[in-house]
Design goal:
Helices cover 28% and strands 18% of the residues. The radius of gyration is 35 Å and the shape is elongated. By secondary structure, the chain is α+β, with helices and mostly antiparallel strands. The strands form 3 sheets. Strands 1, 2, 3, 4, 5, 7, 8, 10, 11 and 14 form a 10-stranded mixed sheet that branches. Strands 6-9-13-12 form a 4-stranded mixed sheet. The protein has 3 domains: 70 residues, no CATH class; 147 residues; 171 residues, no CATH class.
Length: 436
């Protein structure tokens, strides 16, 4: 006589999962009652199972009993319904003739006091843990109409201040951007104060710059405006009124496929690093692939320092006072940026500037600004050994700081002529990493 057995693997597995569900308070009474009844039924079916059966029909009948109980338990567990969360209590509405004031502290430790006025406008006062405070006035639509900030003397002394702002601060034009009035408590700082503020998740265009607005409404771009991780940073020397504006320009000769089209063009044109060259039809061209000259790069650095006029005549014998780069050459010589050829008598302004010369000029400029230039790394590019001896130290610094990377083929090309787009990109990296 044969003996028939019935597998209990399925129902045992379903029961194991069901037994792990213990938090009855999380489910509705009706679904929990159906679930526990199905679980009890499955246990009873499993307990009724014998080790062997005398007939195949009896074994099949027991198998059907186990399968049905397992399916019923599976569906009951699947249909467990969570209890609805308690509804929040309605916030009391402000009386129509009174301001509503809400005080809170955010994750950064900033204390925010939001005052909603009866006319629908509001004011947000924020104080950071270091004492820097801001006041933002918002219209009925929640757009900032005016922003003021106060920097304590203790923070100004450190040389850096971050404004705790919780609203968008950038505009596509000066008319769209709210004015930010910054007051530095106490005496003016001995060195420029680097002010930083976040864009609050709004993407900053490469052409975004801080614009200094004087008492007469005249605007001046702060060329050293740095952008990093959606944060904008800029130096001020005294109390100031600032607007954050996109001043990037477009050029007729720049194609979307150009490597410099997306990031470099807007950044360089907004800061006056590259202003463009008139084309045959009169429209400005970027000419990113054209060679940059020594005069061009030195003048770019001079423009960052706003040293554009009234420079004393340089000692270079090949620079006439009427040359377009005369002021830049004089500034570069006066500040030790460019030493010249032939014992220092020849500027060579129209000569193409090489990548290693760019590194030398830029390191001297960083030294002039009092920046730390101690970083060094031995370049591993296949052609790094072709760097001239006079530029080896500066190139090690530029590579260490990520200012001059290799090209797509991994070559450093130290003696190659730098293009206009390349020097603009190098200056953008310098501003964003060294001046932020």
């Amino acid at each position: 006589m044969s003996n028939w057995t019935v597998s209990t693997t399925l129902i045992s597995s379903v029961l194991d999962e069901a037994n792990a569900v213990t938090n009855d308070d999380a489910y509705t009474d009706e679904s929990w009652k159906a679930f526990t009844a199905a679980r009890d039924g499955a246990k009873a079916a499993l307990d009724s199972c014998l080790e062997t059966y005398d007939t195949e029909a009896a074994a099949e009948q027991q198998k059907d009993l186990l399968d049905n109980a397992a399916k019923k338990l599976f569906r009951a567990q699947r249909d467990l319904a969570a209890k609805p969360l308690p509804q929040p209590q309605p916030q009391p509405q402000p009386e129509p003739d009174r301001d509503n004031i809400k005080v809170e502290t955010d994750e950064a430790g900033n204390k925010l006091t939001t005052t909603t006025h009866k006319d629908g406008t509001s004011t947000v006062d924020t104080t950071a843990p270091d004492g820097v405070s801001t006041t933002i006035k918002l219209d009925k639509d929640g757009d900032a109409t005016a922003i003021s900030a106060t920097v304590p003397a203790s923070v100004a002394k450190s040389g850096r201040a971050t404004l705790p702002l919780k609203h968008a601060i950038a505009g596509a034009s000066s008319a769209d951007a709210p004015a930010i009035t910054i007051d530095i408590s106490g005496a003016a700082p001995a060195r420029p104060l680097l002010v930083s503020l976040d864009s609050q998740d709004s993407e900053l265009a490469p052409g975004t710059v801080a614009v200094l607005v004087d008492a007469n409404g005249n605007e001046k771009v702060l060329a050293k405006t740095a952008l990093a991780n959606n944060r904008v940073s800029f130096p001020i020397e005294n109390d100031a009124t600032i607007k954050i504006v996109d001043r990037g320009k477009s050029f007729e000769d720049v194609r979307e496929t150009d490597w410099f089209a997306q990031e470099v063009v807007g950044y360089a044109s907004a800061r006056g690093i590259i202003n463009g060259v008139p084309g045959e039809r009169g429209a400005l061209q970027f000419q990113g692939n054209a060679a940059a000259s020594r005069a061009m790069f030195v003048c770019m650095l001079a423009n960052l320092e706003d040293a554009r006029q009234d420079q004393p005549q340089s000692a270079f014998t090949d620079v006439a006072q009427s040359d377009w780069f005369a002021n830049g050459a004089a500034w570069g010589s006066e500040n030790g940026i460019v030493a010249g050829y032939g014992g220092g008598s020849v500027f060579g302004g129209e000569d193409p500037v090489t990548r290693e010369q760019v590194a030398v000029f830029l390191m001297r400029y960083a030294t002039m600004l009092g920046l730390d230039t101690s970083a060094r790394v031995q370049p591993t590019h296949p052609d790094a050994g072709s760097t001239s001896q006079f530029a080896a130290d500066a190139m090690q610094w530029a590579v260490a700081e990520g200012l001059i990377p290799g090209n797509g083929s991994g070559m450093l090309n130290p003696a190659s002529t730098a293009t206009r787009a390349e020097v603009a990109a190098i200056l953008a990296r310098f501003i964003n990493t060294q001046l932020a």
